[in-house]
Amino acid sequence: MRLLQTPTASISAPQNKDGKGKDMTHIRRALAAVGVSTAIAAGTIAAAPIVSASQSVASTATQLAAAAPRCAKGHFCAFDGAEYKKGKILDSTAGRGAQVDVIDKRTSSGINRTNNEWVGVNDRQLPLPDDDVFKFAPHSRHAHISSNNTIDYFSVR
Amino acid sequence: MHRITARMAIVRAALLIMVALTACAQPADDPSTPSAAVLTSLRTIAKQPIELGVAEAHVIQRCLKSKGFDVPLPSPVVGSIANLPLHVDEQQAAQRGYGDAIIRGIDPTDDPLDRYARTLAPDQRIRFEHAVDDRTAAQIGFTTPGGWAVGAATLGCAAEARMAVYGSVENWLIAYYLPQDLNDHAANVYTHPSVSAAAVAYYQCMTERGNPFRYPQDAVQHAQQISVEATADETPQPSPQEILIATADAHCQKASNLLFVIQSILEHDARQWVVQNQSLVLRAAIIVEQARSKAPAILLGT
Rounded to whole angstroms, how far apart are CA atoms B38 and B274? Predict the structure, then answer.
């Protein structure tokens, strides 16, 4: 476990997160944030085995090495490293409509144990719309996130 | 109505399978260009119908009720390539606003299952959460060609619903996560000059109608906020303001040709990925079409 030097998880301001103002094109940032609980802790190992579905059309199941660290039911957790390694940088129960800040461009894996879709977003400058980097489905886990760690915040949908 | 929809979906699925088989047997003349069949499949998985998520939600609800939990209908979720605008039909927008694309209810920010779970005693709540998603069970994993390694449990009502609608949890992982390999490509199309030009035309059109949104996704977000702020009853209808935004959005999408331009640029920019992964794209499209053919019966509870 390592403590991070910057606040690792918090509710993002419901508006003007990056000083873009209240332009209607960024109304996405104005949705009300709701309760978020956070924790900075390295995970412990859970025992559920994983079977991999092959990328090929003929699927052949193989064992994956990754095992998930603990992320409580009803929580969304993000990790600094792939396969839940390094520190847990977000542990949140934020509800739908919330925008939850996380250390910029560090999320490499995650576990979604909520009933909501958590979307990792890359904060881009106007006039470009923000980039939905990755959508984490409810009740799923993500041992490795590609796309070079571009997530700046999460949008709960 | 449902029967006609189901029959059409079955025919679509059969056609898609035929097209897929043909595409596999006869590669495109230009190996760097996806065949028409593969592009059709890509479009099928790029924006999956919300009905699939609604069907999945109904199975989750029935499954939990069978275990003694009288839950409301969960929120629907479906796979898609992120960063693509929602296509809005003008006639539908005039009647239903953004329809199921907007989350509604007493408190749209409060997930229906979370709201229900809070009413349970602690021991019951643990049993309920276990019934939704049994993480002690084996997990199925899938790694997309782009390197997204994802997994989900094979037991619990969420898994049961995924199996009922998509055939298996593995199929659901493919349908939901494969399109996300193109999220980056979709995000990058907005820097293309022809998309910028179409977006300017869209913005001007929307501004003329009193809704100065730069992109359709901003209009949807604003409509969602209206729904969040509204004092809603159990089955709220779209507000007059949402109807106005949605109809303007539909009109301006058509007038600016924005969605067509975005789709064209995306298909061009992503062609190498599409060609390299055409078998998987075809498979995902078949999964989606087969799910679409099942959805009406699932919604009817048969």
Answer: 8
Q: In this structure, are residues B224 and B102 in contact, taking their beta carbons and an 8 Å threshold?
A: yes
**Is the pLDDT assigned to residue B207 strictly greater than 80?**
yes
Asked if A119 contacts A100 with a C-beta cutoff of 8 angstroms, the reply is no
In angstroms, the CA B184 to CA B204 distance is 27
Strands A88-92 and A99-102: unpaired
pLDDT-wise least confident of A94-98, B40-44, B162-166, B290-294: A94-98
Closest CA in chain B for residue A127:
B214
Query: CB contact, 8 Å: A26 with chain B?
Result: yes
- Domain ranges in chain B are 2-300
Query: Which of helix, strand or coil describes residue B113?
Result: helix
| Paired tokens of A84 | 């839940």
Residue A4 distance to chain B (closest CA, Å): 25
Phi, psi torsion values for A10, nearest 5 degrees: -160, 170
What domains does chain A contain, in order, with CATH numbers? 9-156 (2.60.20.10)
- Number of residues that make up chain B: 302
Nearest to B137 by CA among B113, B160, B167, B164: B160
Q: What is the pLDDT of residue B110?
A: 77
Whether A37 has its CB under 8 Å from any CB of chain B: the answer is no
96-125 in A: which are within 8 Å (CB) of B?
A: 96-98, 113-117, 119, 122, 124
SS3 B41: helix
φ, ψ at B117 (rounded to 5°): -60, -35
CB-CB under 8 Å, B109 with A96:
yes
- Beta bridge mates, A78: A90, A110
B128 contacts B69 by C-beta, under 8 angstroms:
yes
Residue from B225, B75, B103, B268 nearest B161 by CA: B75
Distance from CA of A36 to the nearest CA of B (A): 13
Does ipTM top 0.85?
A: no
- Beta strand A76-79 pairing with A9-11: unpaired
Contacts of B210 in chain A (CB under 8 A): none
**Contact at CB, A146 and B147, closer than 8 angstroms:** yes
Mean pLDDT over residues B20-40, rounded?
68
Residue B132, SS3? helix
**Using H for helix, E for strand and C for coil, what is the string for B68-95?**
CCCCCCCCCCCCECCCCCCCCCHHHHHH
Q: Going by C-beta distance under 8 Å and a sequence separation of 6 or more, which residues neighbour residue B221?
A: A27, A28, A31
